[in-house]
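Pipeline run #58 for the internal structure catalog. This entry was flagged by the ingest filter as a single-chain record with no existing model, so it goes straight to prediction. Upstream metadata was stripped on purpose; only the residue string is passed forward. Reviewer on rotation: M.T. Logging verbosity set to normal.
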Amino acid sequence: MIKNYLISIAHRYASKWLVLGIDVFLICISFILSYIIRFNLTLNFDTDKFLLQLPLVALIAALSFLITGSYKGVIRHTGVRDVYNIFNAICLSSIITIFMVIINRQSNVMENFTIPLSIIIIHSLFSFITLTTSRYIFKSLYYNLIRGYRASKNVLIYGAGEAGILTFNALTDHTASDSKVVGYIDDDRKKVGKNLNGVRVYDREELTKSFIIKRNISEIIIAIHCEDNTYLKELVESLVEFPVQVKIVPPVDHWINGELQVSQIKQVQIEDLLNRAPIKIKNSKISNELKDGVIMVTGGAGSIGSELVRQIANYEYKSLIIIDQAESSLYDLQQELKQNGIHNFIPIVSDIRDKNRMNTFFQEYRPNIVFHAAAYKHVPLMEYNAYEAIKINIAGTKVLVDLSSSYNVDKFVFVSTDKAVNPTNVMGATKRIAEMYISCKHQESRTKFITTRFGNVLGSNGSVIPLFKKQIENGGPLTVTHKDITRYFMTIPEASQLVLEAGAMGRGGEIFIFDMGKSIKIFELAKNMIKLSGLRYPEDINIKITGLRPGEKLYEELLASGENTLPTYHKKIMISKVRELNYPDVRSKIDELCVSNMFFNEDIVGLMKKIVPEFVSNNSEFSKLDDKTSANGNDSKHSNLRNEDQKKIFQS
């Protein structure tokens, strides 16, 4: 109540005219002090002359304030710009006064208006200091009164550079902010021990648990702009060990109108640590490839498909065909594109397994490039639904590949997965068989068939991070299948850029793979997410080991057995040099697989294992189909050894 009353008083009475009146009053006070100082701190000066000069000086000052508009600034938000306006007003006032004094000396119209130049100079300095100081005093009193009725939290800013100072200003200038900056932390020894905005800069080594507790610090805000995400990751991981919330300032290009807002300072998310520096793509190459073309995207409402659509929409294509069987997701994407001013697209609700319907689309729109992202991808579900996995991932892909070849599509870009490498589950095996069918078709077609492989995508439907967030919201525990399980991660935009770049650089027949950096240990990921939420492991939220799910690997792999890599013009994008296939035999077996699947053949997974000899089931009921030599021992062990081989290949 008291706070609201004070605010209403400030808004009601602190008008610009009141500010103008106070400023003129302070000018008069400064003029009196100037005379007293000029005459050795005495009143031994001509009072009659002074009383004539005072109203004229006040009038000139008021005129200067009206011209420069210095009185219009909001006092409680006084900044450098307001001080600059005061300086201009004082300079203008002094120039007018000196000009009038000089003219008066020549004409002698007003004998008593001859002000000594020394007084004018002293008055100018006093006026500038008085007006500036009064504003900052009022600003300080206002914030102290407002915040005095609200509990504040102590904050440390990590980074004493420009970003750190701007963060301090954003926190202190925001009325609703309850943050009190009690110090900076910086690695630069030259800054340590100095004060910025009246706040001390501490060394990184001084930041200990006792330091945090002693100063009752609630938050640490990271205000450094670093392109090296490894450094940022290590920094955050060291800070989350303390009993504080860790927040981060966004990059400068994300600031609103070039200014940092308090609302933009967000709690560090796990994506901030996993997200690497974005890959640099030759957009001109993609632009030339898509220019004036008819582009078809299947699975266009999914995680990768929708991002492909968003990125393609930035280029000068002729028409964009978006196909997905998920009605609601496709509708949401349609509305998003329309709101962004994109109208040159055709959303179609359809199943890619319906060959007759897909044929009508190819016949009507005649696409130049097809991006095939439609697929079932959840490993445990597909392990129990092999029929559906084969029907969509293999038969559906086969429909699109055959139609693309029949209608002489220029390029067909297939979105595959690292789970297709030495598969241990039905889903991965279906994607590998789809890759193999594409390789077979490439041998006899004018269409250029291109495959891309990449790992887990951050934020995609069903990925581990959204799952962990929900579990934290529900109070835990977080579920991890194995303490040693690791995964590669990349962002959705990054993955989509890779697919577009593959479509542009591909000449047909390649499998493009991406150097995804270091794999992430899921158990450590879970612990970091708990800490970033301001909670403690295991006191607040525990982690439960549930055991590997059917078909799940401990380690994902980059290359299949017998594969190597060839470089491209981009150091992060490579071409997998696959082993030679017996194309007639492979194609015959894939045809047999699709026909058998139509009749619900119980031995369907056995047929898949014949097509993909490296398909060795792990932790699955289908392990009994593997011969004893392949199945003996834990597949995760073999997978681990293969994974180490792939790492050596990349390093070489």
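catalog note: DSSP finds 23 helices and 22 strands in the chain.
catalog note: The radius of gyration is 35 Å.
status: ready for reviewer M.T.
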